[in-house]
Amino acid sequence: NSLNALAKSKGKLYFGSATDNPEFSNTAYTKILFSDMFGQITPGNSMKWGPTEPSRDTYTYAQGDVVLNDAKNASQIVRAHNLAWYEQLPNWLSSGNFDNATLQTILTDHVTSAATHYKGQVYAWDVVNEPVDDSGNMRSWLYQDKVGTSYIDLAFRAAHAADPNAKLYLNDYNLEYSGAKFNTTLNLVKQLVAQGTPIHGVGFEGHMIVGSVPSAANIASQMNQFTALGLEVAITELDIRQTMPETAAQRMQQKTDYQNMVGACMLVTKCVGVTVWDYTDLYSWVPSTFSGQGAACPWDNNFARKPAYDGIVLGL
Ligand code: XIL
């Protein structure tokens, strides 16, 4: 009755869930979240740049601390998320007109502050999030455009200096598929490893679509191209969305899709664990982000387990 216990019995470090502070007022929700069902928690928003540095050099970690402390009380480990990303930047930063040198200082300061605040308390940091776009180009955003790709090395080095024991990840979506985005990411990671950047893992976000999930073996072979470089991998944000309204056939397809995603991690020794991007449809980011899509999580709106849950059990 515990996905985490099952995952651990098969050699994984954890099975976890993302969460967010506003959800903590729902006791039916927190009862499951902080139970032994899950061994790992990711704060879905509260450790991001915008929320943590609302004005330059002013840091607020109260919300992230709540998540961390509740997880600790439940004997759960935390994946901290994230340090350098093109979305949810503080307004002063995205609307400011800073030169290259100042942007480097700003990034170093932010990463150093956050990684120092959580030093020794988190299993991993997603240091660089979604650095490659869907066409396989380095994603155009403030840091890529004004500092260049070296912002990535800068962020990893600052994080490592601040918290030498945290596993430092590059995290992205659609790495489950071969193609331009995957190739660019693999080359980028090869380059980082070759130049001695302190990167330890690659996160496969796992934001998938019902009926479009590759086989476990195919996803595992994508993962193996990173573990061959000496890195670990993890599935960091798993959800499998579908066109609404949900049908019985889609629910069964979703079960198979969850089984394949989780099964891929099981095929890869250095895949350390799986995190769902919240466990219940009630708090999924999908409906508000992808119009007409929903029901992406293994528990429904009323905290009942869906066939997707059984798919996870079969995959583990
Ligand atoms: C999402 C959160 O779940 C939403 O609440 C927020 O409005 C937007 O960000 N990839 C990531 C996550 O790495 O940080 C995103 O989280 C989902 C996509």
Automatic annotation (TrEMBL):
Gene Ontology biological process terms from the UniProt entry: xylan catabolic process
Metabolic or biological pathway: Glycan degradation; xylan degradation
Q: What is its main location?
A: secreted
Outline the extent of the GH10 domain.
1-315
Q: Which UniProt keywords apply?
A: Carbohydrate metabolism, Glycosidase, Hydrolase, Polysaccharide degradation, Secreted, Signal, Xylan degradation
Q: What Enzyme Commission number(s) appear in the record?
A: 3.2.1.8
Question: What highest taxon heads this organism's lineage?
Answer: Eukaryota
Q: Which reaction does it catalyse?
A: Endohydrolysis of (1->4)-beta-D-xylosidic linkages in xylans
Q: What is annotated as the active site?
A: E237 (nucleophile)
Indicate whether Signal appears among the record's keywords: yes
User: Know the name of this protein?
Assistant: Beta-xylanase
Q: Which organism is it from?
A: Exidia glandulosa HHB12029
Q: What taxonomic classification does the UniProt entry list for its organism?
A: Eukaryota, Fungi, Dikarya, Basidiomycota, Agaricomycotina
The range of the complete sequence contained here reads 83 to 398 of 402
